[in-house]
């Protein structure tokens, strides 16, 4: 999977600002700095996709679809965020 | 004799949201606020009648705002007047004069602290030549395309003072 299109990154940038605003969480970054973080994280995911796939043990590595692997990744990250 | 007088006060409950890109009503600890987005330039519009104690001078618009998240960087605000007056403005259309601005204001270091910024208008075309006793509108815009602070800005009060 390639990196997200610029329009998707823009939407994510807007959404994270809206979400932080609704929770009134302090943030000491410029909009450009936050956007750079969005871009860098998306790029990091793309750069490490092979490594991520290799970390999944067999038989899950071959049995899960790409979307299922990403979903598994999301629920784990989400849970880690919830308990952090 | 009206120089320095407070002429009008608006709160978020006075907002007449425009059809496109309106600032949105919200509350913060039961304080009514208008949320101005960080990504899109949004507007709030307030109507009033220029009070009888207005002596014909310039106006200063004071904006009282807090930030939802930002604790650093800057914010830009624009304001513009539209004279409705006595047969001056067909209200089927908008007729706001050019905006005046207060730019590059560093936001408070604590989210929730209310900062006050001001925008001055000279008497005449700058304030669309509004005269005493005439109806008018004031449009307030966050210039989100130009400022750097993240997250929403929350407008809490507006004061119009005769300069």
Topology of helices and strands:
The complex is a heterodimer of chains A (84) and B (163).
Chain A: H1 6-23, H2 31-47, H3 49-55, H4 60-63, H5 66-83
Helix pairs in contact in A: 1-2
Chain B: E1 6-10, E2 24-28, E3 31-36, E4 43-49, E5 59-67, E6 74-83, E7 100-106, E8 115-121, E9 135-142, E10 153-162
Antiparallel strand pairs in B: 1-10, 2-3, 3-10, 4-9, 5-8, 5-10, 6-7, 6-9
Short description:
Chain A has helices spanning 6-23, 31-47, 49-55, 60-63, 66-83.
Give the strand tally of chain A: 0
Helical element count of chain A?
A: 5
**What is the assigned CATH homologous superfamily of chain B?**
Galactose-binding domain-like
- State the order of secondary-structure elements of chain A, H for helix, E for strand: HHHHH
Distance between the termini of chain A: 28 Å
- Domain tally of chain A: 2
Structural notes for this entry:
The complex is a heterodimer of chains A (about 80) and B (about 160). Helix content of chain A is about 75%, strand content about 0%. Chain A is mainly alpha-helical and about 80 residues long. Chain A has 2 domains: about 1-45, no CATH class; about 55-85. In chain B, a hairpin with a 2-residue loop joins strand 2 (about 25-30) and strand 3 (about 30-35). Helices cover about 0% and strands about 45% of the residues of chain B. Chain B has a single domain (about 5-160), classed as Jelly Rolls (Sandwich). With about 160 residues, chain B is mainly beta. The mean pLDDT of chain B is about 95. In chain B, strands 1, 2, 3, 5, 8 and 10 form a 6-stranded antiparallel sheet that branches. The interface of A and B includes residues 13, 27, 28, 29 and 31 of A.
């Amino acid at each position: 999977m390639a990196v997200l299109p610029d329009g998707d990154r823009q939407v994510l940038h807007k959404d994270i600002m809206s979400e932080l605003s609704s929770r009134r969480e302090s943030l000491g970054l410029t909009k450009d700095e936050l956007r750079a973080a969005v871009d860098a994280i998306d790029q990091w995911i793309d750069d490490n996709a092979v490594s991520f796939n290799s970390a999944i043990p067999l038989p899950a590595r071959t049995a899960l679809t790409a979307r299922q692997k990403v979903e598994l990744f999301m629920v784990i990250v989400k849970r880690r965020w919830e308990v952090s | 004799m009206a120089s320095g007088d407070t002429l009008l006060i608006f709160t978020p409950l006075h907002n007449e949201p425009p059809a496109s890109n309106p600032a949105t009503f919200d509350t913060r600890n039961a304080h009514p606020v208008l949320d101005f987005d960080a990504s899109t330039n949004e507007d709030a519009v307030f109507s009033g009648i220029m009070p009888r104690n207005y002596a014909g001078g310039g106006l200063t618009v004071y904006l009282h705002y807090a930030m939802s998240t930002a604790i650093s960087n800057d914010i830009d605000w624009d304001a513009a007047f539209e004279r409705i007056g006595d047969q001056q403005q067909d209200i089927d259309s908008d007729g706001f004069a050019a905006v005046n601005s207060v730019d590059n204001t560093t936001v408070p270091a604590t989210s929730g602290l209310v900062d006050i910024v001001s925008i001055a208008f000279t008497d005449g075309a700058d304030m669309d030549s509004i005269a005493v006793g005439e109806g008018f509108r004031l449009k307030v815009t966050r210039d989100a395309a130009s400022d750097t602070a993240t997250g929403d800005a929350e407008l809490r009060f507006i004061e119009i003072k005769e300069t």
